[in-house]
Amino acid sequence: MEVVFYVAIALLALFFIDAILGIVNSIWESRLRAQRFQLEAKDLKDQLLRQEKTQVVSGSLKWKGYRRFRVSNRVMEAQDICSFYLSPLDEEAICPYEPGQHLGFKFQIPGESKHLIRTYSLSSGDPISNTYRVTIKKVPPPPGTSHPPGRGSSYFHEDLEIGSTIEVKAPAGKFCLDRHDQRPAVFIAGGIGVTPLLSMLEAICDKKIDRVCHFFHAVRNSDDHAFAQSLKELAEGNPNVSLHTYYSSPKEDSVLEDGIKTGFLSIDAIKDTVGHIEAQFYLCGPPPMMGALVPALEEAGVTSSDILLEAFGPASVKKKKDPESGDQKTDQGKLNSKTRKIHFSKSDVTVPWDGSSSILDMAEEHDVEIESSCRAGSCGTCQVKVVSGKISYEDEPSAEPDAGNCLSCVGMPEGDVEIDA
Ligand code: FES
């Protein structure tokens, strides 16, 4: 009888414990649900705020000319690579940009009388905090030369502190993500060329676009490896994204992280990874890398229109001309063009136009100095005054030269011209 009593008590106790555990469990679950709900509501609120702000921004016009911005933060991303966060001094909304575009800057180096004009790709931007971000590598003097270090990048690194202000042009540039193409996107970045491509990849991931993305990033070693963590997180968080990193000259004592390969990025590595050429290829890197990979992609059968590129440094990369695009001049055209002369008035040099080169190419060929940067009509660095004559452009450049000036890197003479250089 006693045994039955104790068994009943034990069963009763078990029943109560089970009931209490059930209650605790359901309280715990409802708490988790509430937390989840709060997080989702916050996400939704952020999204709405972002959309609302973007709509306000989209409705406003891009500003003309220069607008003053303040450096609101600086973050070192790797050795000699710094991100600058910029907010407008007038606190009005910034305008939206297409991933891949750049900002133009005008500034004066202390002690110099002339302004410098430079463009730097947007690595990111945020309508909520109303900031743009550009990421700039301090350009060292070329090894074995007496050339000075990059003046523009040195100014940013050495003179622009948090709170400094600078004149900024609205986002511009034609090197942008094609949002309508659904084919795989292959991003090929060399060094600091990662900035516009990172911005494109972020746009794809932010919008949860289900587009296959292969991201190749070639750098010297861990010292130059900017945005390593951001890229890793994008690849880990998005099954459509694969990341391939190459160190051309790894540090002797360093242990490479998983997935990082050594050596130069080659066309074979790209072909092996992508597996086919039905893709859009976005390239941004230094001239040697672009000079090797662009012709190799073309040779592999990728059509010119599927190779979108932006080169930086002292040389431009030319893609093959499409014979159907009318790019090629007729013999008659060449004959006529020979009669056109370019007179560089400051240097007192007169040259016959060769029928296909830009004013900048002609100037350089004859030791006439004109500053340049993008060599693609997008930064405005190469603008020079046209004293007389008319300049035309094969494609409308994205930079707008000041009245009376032309963009010498993409401008060609329509007849005899006099250039103030
Ligand atoms: S060099 Fe950039 S527009 Fe000419």
Describe, in plain words, how this protein is organized in 3D.
By secondary structure, the chain is an alpha/beta fold. Helix content is 30%, strand content 27%. The protein is built from 8 helices and 19 strands. Strands 1-2-5-4-3-6 form a 6-stranded antiparallel barrel. The longest helix has 58 residues, at 2-59. Mean pLDDT is 83; it is low at 50-59 and 322-335. Bound molecules: FE2/S2 (inorganic) cluster. FE2/S2 (inorganic) cluster (FES) binds next to loops.
Helices and strands in order, then pairings?
Blueprint: H1 2-59, E1 66-78, E2 81-88, E3 102-108, E4 115-126, E5 131-137, H2 151-159, E6 165-172, E7 185-190, H3 194-206, E8 213-219, H4 228-237, E9 241-247, E10 260-262, H5 267-274, E11 280-285, H6 287-299, E12 307-311, H7 331-337, E13 341-344, E14 349-352, H8 359-365, E15 383-388, E16 391-393, E17 405-407, E18 411-413, E19 417-419
The chain binds FE2/S2 (inorganic) cluster (FES).
With strands numbered from the N-terminus, the spatial order across the biggest sheet is 1-2-5-4-3-6
Number of helices: 8
Q: Strand content of the residues, in percent?
A: 25-35%
Q: At the fourth CATH level, what is the homologous superfamily of the largest domain?
A: Nucleotide-binding domain of ferredoxin-NADP reductase (FNR) module
Structural class computed from helices and strand pairing: alpha/beta
